[in-house]
Please model this.
Amino acid sequence: MTLKPFIFLCRFLSCLIGVALAGAAKGGGKWNTRAPMLSSRTEVAAAEVGGKLYVIGGFGQGGELVEEYDPVKDRWQRRASLPRALHHTTAVAVKAKLYVIGGFDSDWKPVNTVYEYEASSDRWRVRASLPTPRGALAVGVIGEKIYAVGGVGTDGKNTAANEEYDPLADRWNKHAPLPTARDHLAVGVMDGRLYAIGGRMHGNYRRNLAVNEEYDPAVGGWRPRAALPTARSGIAAAVLGKEIFVFGGESPSGTFNETESYDLATNRWTTWAPMPTPRHGLGAAVVGGTIYVLSGGPKPGGSFSSLNEAFMP
Model:
């Protein structure tokens, strides 16, 4: 065998092994349908605070809308609206307060706004601006600091920005940039490290990615990890136990119903029971041992839903 065919064969076998490792494990899990939201939306943000779920902004029946879900009572109610209508924004909780960071306004202009919400008073207040205005970004919390990564900037191009917000000091700091600049990605945090998963290039769902990159603030650097088995964007992620679960997404051929989880300890992915309703632009958050997968569009582009589907691994 000549050298070139040998090299090709090695690369081919390496690719097959990588795919097998990424998608070999199979999990079960159970889905059930809970009370629908009060509105139909897509491109929302979602987070858990104090055992309640919050769905924020998006397209559909109002980009300023905020709805709170009580899983115990299986009931929704409206809460104080966002100070401005946003879509493709983000939400995360730190010390019982909710932070909504970045996004697009109604004219698709990336914003640098940061809003803090306190459930006990049902009030919003403005905090220090995001240094890099952007939409379709993702956020995660490490040690009570919020990391905002990726997205689409004011020039319409992907940004590799990785910026950290300290809610106590109300101050931003810049960190090592994301190796693969992208938008419509998802983030999960485990063991003090952040995982930036999937997404797309230049807002184009024909250029979906399977990239999974790990950021460790202790060393200030990124490294690649096992790729998402199904390349997709417009996804949602939630951490349960020692795994990051990734849901939904879109492509030109339709929306995804895939449920796949990443295990940090083994650097491998598991495929679980598919979502009952494929969709993109959705939100996901955890209460107890259940992940609630919320809202989102059943069809690529501008479609909406009020869905609330609960997943138990």
